[in-house]
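Anyone up for a design puzzle?
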């Protein structure tokens, strides 16, 4: 008779590979403090957690199932019972990661609930709400770190808010600068309300809205050109398609943690931008646009590339889940790369190509404004002063590189031994560090190792005036800190520099 800890599954959970084998990891992770969620929300959160745990465990558990079958076994329930009792013994690395993820998920939900209740009066005041409570949470937004990530909060009043588990002062600074741009150019680039609570905060939810007319599209692309010039001046990074929302006639950057960035000092170290020929101090740095021979791939471009709405990829997936016929196989999958980042009009995505003159006019207007306002922008009364002492996120390598490594490390051979896991992770991460650089920047490699051993993407936090990274204050590694980088860019603005950027823009539009 099978062990009684095998579970009676809800129908919606049966599509999650090896769900019964990992169910025990959730038993202490779905107690949502004293907050009363509806049954449907609890089920959704449980599904999300189990889906995340399954994604982490499926490679190892499928390998274990293949070995189980090779030994002549044919009963999937017996396999499940065996895994429930032996994961911690046979796959201690997997066991540790699953426990961390489940515990972090629980803490994340409880933090949202507790902080919402604590901040309720300020939330109501900031976002003009009446008495309200949380009725739903979507935790699948944005990159997670330390177990927490950007989440969508649905309230009983019908309002939606975004919760971010990090300091939001930089969004206030960004809003102030956009207000200055709007005043000077007599336009109305959209910003959104925020409530900064120190190490976390609440933001107004930005709806994706279709364009209603060609006039909307003209205004949208004019403002998009302005926004490209803004990111050029600020030295913004990581403005990929998931960080841009089309809201009617407004393009809106919704993530500002990398809206200002420092410039790395050591030219002997091949950082990602130099490897991929991204020109320094150019419009290609932000990922809002690309050129064929420079920068990011098509599938992450903020403003998109005409004709590229989705990509077809080879991906590994489990078929016949939770049966003895379960198999991990390679299939073609389709993934949308244009969604909320490109305006929709009369059922079609409308790219910049048909509104080229408006885009270039917007870019030129903003560029010329910055060029003619050099003294004001560098003065003590500059709108850029708001960025001083902001907390900034600095990612040593693009996040997708870390995700690829973490995905590779899910193999059963690594999950069965801490020593093997650590050695392989060190080998993969240290490839970027050679010779003197390996010695000089060892603290960065150590930081990456520590974060990734917990399943996290390594993210440094620094003050906008820092020229060092946390953990190594004595080593100046940035030629220009975030603020110096902006002022250096102001000095570079010229008619020649503008013409160079226009060439990049025209190359992108002609792709």
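Challenge accepted. My sequence:
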């Amino acid at each position: 008779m099978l062990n009684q800890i095998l579970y009676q599954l809800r129908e919606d959970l049966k599509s999650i590979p090896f769900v019964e084998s990992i169910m025990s990891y959730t038993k202490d992770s779905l107690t949502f403090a004293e907050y009363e969620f509806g049954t449907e929300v609890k089920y959704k959160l449980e599904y999300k957690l189990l889906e995340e745990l399954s994604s982490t465990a499926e490679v190892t558990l499928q390998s274990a199932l293949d070995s189980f079958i090779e030994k002549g076994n044919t009963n999937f329930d017996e396999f499940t019972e065996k895994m429930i009792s032996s994961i911690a013994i046979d796959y201690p690395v997997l066991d540790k990661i699953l426990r961390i993820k489940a515990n972090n998920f629980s803490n994340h939900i409880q933090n949202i609930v507790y902080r919402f209740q604590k901040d309720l009066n300020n939330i109501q005041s900031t976002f003009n709400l009446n008495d309200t409570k949380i009725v739903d949470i979507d935790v699948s937004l944005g990159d997670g770190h330390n177990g927490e990530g950007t989440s969508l909060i649905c309230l009983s009043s019908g309002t939606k808010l975004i919760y971010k588990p990090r300091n939001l002062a930089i969004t206030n600074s960004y809003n102030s600068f956009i207000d200055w741009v709007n005043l000077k150019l007599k336009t109305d680039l959209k910003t959104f309300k925020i409530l900064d609570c120190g190490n976390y905060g609440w933001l107004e939810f930005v709806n994706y809205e279709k364009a209603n007319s060609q006039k909307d599209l003209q205004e949208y692309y004019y403002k998009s050109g302005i926004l490209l010039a803004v990111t050029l001046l600020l030295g913004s990074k990581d403005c990929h398609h998931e960080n841009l929302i089309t809201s009617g006639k407004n393009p809106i950057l919704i993530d500002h943690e990398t809206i200002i960035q420092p410039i790395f000092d050591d030219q002997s170290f091949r950082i990602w931008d130099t490897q991929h020929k991204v020109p320094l101090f150019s419009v290609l740095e932000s990922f809002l646009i690309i050129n064929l021979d420079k920068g990011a791939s098509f599938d992450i471009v903020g403003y998109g590339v005409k004709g590229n709405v989705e990509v077809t990829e080879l991906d590994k997936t489990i078929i016949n889940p939770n049966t003895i016929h379960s198999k991990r196989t390679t299939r073609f999958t389709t993934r949308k790369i244009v969604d909320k980042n490109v305006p929709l009009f009369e059922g079609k995505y409308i790219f910049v190509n048909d509104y080229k003159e408006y885009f270039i006019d917007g870019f030129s207007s903003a560029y010329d404004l910055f060029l003619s306002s050099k003294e004001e922008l560098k003065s003590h009364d500059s709108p850029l002063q708001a960025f001083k002492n902001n907390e900034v996120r600095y990612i040593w390598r693009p996040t997708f590189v870390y995700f690829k490594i973490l995905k590779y490390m899910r193999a059963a051979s690594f999950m069965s031994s801490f020593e093997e896991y650590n050695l392989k992770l060190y080998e993969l991460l240290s490839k970027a560090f050679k010779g003197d650089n390996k010695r000089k920047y060892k603290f960065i490699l150590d930081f990456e190792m520590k974060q990734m051993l917990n399943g996290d993407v390594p993210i440094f936090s620094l003050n906008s005036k820092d020229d060092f990274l946390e953990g190594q204050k004595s080593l100046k590694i940035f030629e220009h800190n975030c603020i110096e980088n902006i002022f250096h860019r102001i000095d570079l603005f010229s008619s020649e520099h503008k013409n160079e950027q226009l060439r990049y823009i025209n190359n992108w539009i002609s792709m």
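A detail worth pointing out: The longest helix spans residues 39-70.
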